[in-house]
C-alpha cells in the first residue's frame, strides 16, 4: 500500500513538472524568435537605407556629370536683344577710317587696336559700351544666323584654343573688318576666306 502511494505521488509530481518545463522552453523559444525577428528587421532596415544611399549617390553622380568643351563647340548666343538704335552705315564708315592701323594686343586707342579693342572703340563712338573681350562681346546683342547678317553685326571666330577668341564688324558683301594679329593691322577679309570660314562661330546684332 505504501509502495502504491509512493508511485502515485511520484506520477503526480512528474505530471506537474513536465508542463512547467515545457512552458519555460516555449517561452525561451518565443523570446529567441522575437529577438531574431528584430535582428532581421534591423538588418532589412539597414539594407534598405544603404540601398537608398547608393541610389541617391548614383543619382547625384549622374546629374553632376560635366561636359568638356571641344574645339568648334562654342558659339555666340547673344543676350537676346539689340542694345539700341543706330545708323549702321555710319558705324561701318567709322570703322573703315581705321583700316591699316596697327595691331597691338590689349590696345583700344585710335593708334593701335586688338580685335575686341577695335570693335569696342568703334561702338563706343556710337554710344554703345562693349567689354574688351571677344568672348564677352559674343554674349551681348541679338544672335543672328550667317544668312541674315547685316552691316554693323559683330562676327565671331574661334582662332585659338576652345571658345571664341576673335571678333570683327560685318560691313556687307560677305566682308568683315577686324584688327588682325596675323596681318598686324586692321584689315578687311571675306567670310569665305578658308581660315576664317572654318573658324566662324556666329554673330550678334548690337544695333538696328
TrEMBL record:
**Which Gene3D superfamilies does the protein's record reference?**
endopeptidase domain like (from Nostoc punctiforme)
| Alphabetic keyword roster | Hydrolase, Protease, Thiol protease
> Quick one: where's region Disordered?
29-74
* Example GO molecular function: cysteine-type peptidase activity
Name of this chain's protein: Cell wall-associated hydrolase, NlpC family
Q: Where is the composition biased (Basic residues)?
A: 50-69
Q: Does the record's keyword annotation contain DNA damage?
A: no
Record domain NlpC/P60: where: 85-207
The protein's organism comes out as Caloramator quimbayensis
Which terms under GO biological process does the entry name? Answer: proteolysis
Superkingdom assignment: Bacteria
Which protein family is named in the record? Belongs to the peptidase C40 family.
Amino acid at each position: 500500500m505504501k509502495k502504491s502511494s509512493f508511485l502515485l505521488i511520484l506520477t503526480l509530481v512528474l505530471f506537474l513538472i513536465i508542463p512547467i518545463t515545457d512552458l519555460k522552453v516555449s517561452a525561451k523559444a518565443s523570446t529567441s524568435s522575437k529577438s531574431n525577428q528584430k535582428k532581421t528587421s534591423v538588418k532589412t532596415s539597414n539594407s534598405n537605407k544603404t540601398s537608398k544611399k547608393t541610389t541617391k549617390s548614383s543619382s547625384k553622380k549622374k546629374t553632376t556629370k560635366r561636359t568638356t568643351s571641344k574645339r568648334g563647340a562654342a558659339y555666340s548666343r547673344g543676350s537676346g536683344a539689340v542694345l539700341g538704335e543706330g545708323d549702321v552705315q555710319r558705324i561701318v564708315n567709322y570703322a573703315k577710317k581705321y583700316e591699316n592701323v596697327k595691331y597691338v594686343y590689349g590696345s583700344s586707342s585710335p593708334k593701335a587696336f586688338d580685335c575686341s579693342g577695335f570693335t569696342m572703340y568703334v561702338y563706343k563712338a556710337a554710344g554703345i559700351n562693349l567689354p574688351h573681350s571677344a568672348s564677352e562681346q559674343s554674349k551681348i546683342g541679338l544672335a543672328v544666323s550667317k544668312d541674315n547678317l547685316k552691316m554693323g553685326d559683330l562676327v565671331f571666330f574661334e582662332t585659338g584654343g576652345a571658345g571664341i577668341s576673335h571678333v570683327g564688324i560685318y560691313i556687307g558683301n560677305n566682308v568683315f573688318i577686324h584688327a588682325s594679329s596675323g596681318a598686324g593691322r586692321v584689315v578687311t577679309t571675306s567670310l569665305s576666306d578658308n581660315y576664317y570660314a572654318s573658324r566662324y562661330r556666329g554673330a550678334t546684332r548690337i544695333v538696328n
